[in-house]
Amino acid sequence: MLRQRNRRNRLLVLIFLLVNTILMLTIVVSRKERSSAPNIISKTIILIRTSNRCQARLTYLLQSWLSSSLAQQSKIYLFTDRIKKYTDKRVLKSFKTIIETNCSETHGRFDLCCKTAHEFDFYYHISRANPDIEWMCRFDDDQYVNLENLYQLLPQFDSFSPYYIGRTSLKHRLKVRNHSHTFSFATYGAGVCFSRQLLARLRPYVSKTILPYNCIEQRLSDDAYVGFLTEVILNVTLTPLQELFHSHLEKLDMSFRQFSFAYLRQAITFGFAWDRYDLSWLPIIHQLVELVRKGEEQAAERLWLFLRNYEKEHPNQSVYKHDQTCLPPQTERH
């Protein structure tokens, strides 16, 4: 009888110790989860590309995923062509750091590659004073970015390894002259993230005096040329995350209403094609994301179902629109 009691007591002690161990592990894990977000935020720079002719888009960014509080714009940088051409100077004051590239405002190959070269150059400049920066993620001004999801994704990858993360632009692989290898590339329209190891390897090829001219020589757009450098020259394969990164190039016969609420909740970026979805959707998507973040998932799901049904019942309101957020570019010669 005494032996059974002692055995029972030992068992209770073991159970007590096991429960305490599990509780301690839970506390440690939860603390790590809470601390990982601030750590990755401080180690990631976010670049947003815009143009003076698209300044109306900035208002939608500030109404949605980009905080209008300058204190919350740490490590977020706005890239534009020519500040003096902005007619709405007030909107510029809503951005903590603005980098002027002085590249042409057109959408030509040279001009886009000029802007891309400035983005890389800025990373190399800022990383000298901030060697702890692990990631550079760049986005366009017509995208919605779920920063919380992005900051949860990046720690899953080792920044000391070369990572090129985004959405594959084309179903087929590309090939350039004088090279036998084919390559794929991440469309800039969905957002792209580069690890610091990859950025270090890219450095000899992406300077402002080299990259734009090599884009022209290879007859590639800026994002395609970055894919060529990464996959062909550096032999680093794109990490495609098609379910998380979305661009305006996606066929919208698979429209927003095809996305389930769970799909919407986990996505990192959405692109907005002006002829089908204008940028007034950005604040709407942001409200859905905010409801989820606050734990009000039922309200968010009901709102999403309403929007999906509304779009289904009013299909003509989402097609053949004119982009009113960008003025036509003025062609410039080089």
Automatic annotation (TrEMBL):
Q: How does it sit in the membrane?
A: Single-pass membrane protein; Single-pass type II membrane protein
Localization terms from the record: Endomembrane system; Membrane
Keyword check for Metal-binding? no
Q: Which GO terms describe its cellular component?
A: endomembrane system; membrane
The Fringe-like glycosyltransferase domain is annotated at: 45-274
What keyword terms does UniProt attach to this protein?
Answer: Glycosyltransferase, Membrane, Signal-anchor, Transferase, Transmembrane, Transmembrane helix
Please provide, alphabetically and separated by semicolons, the GO molecular function terms listed in this UniProt record.
glycosyltransferase activity
Does the entry feature the keyword Transferase, yes or no? yes
Q: Which InterPro entries match?
A: Fringe-like_glycosylTrfase (IPR003378)
Q: Which residues form the signal peptide?
A: none
State which residue ranges cross the membrane. Answer: 12-30
Annotated family = Belongs to the glycosyltransferase 31 family.
Q: What name does this protein carry?
A: Fringe-like glycosyltransferase domain-containing protein
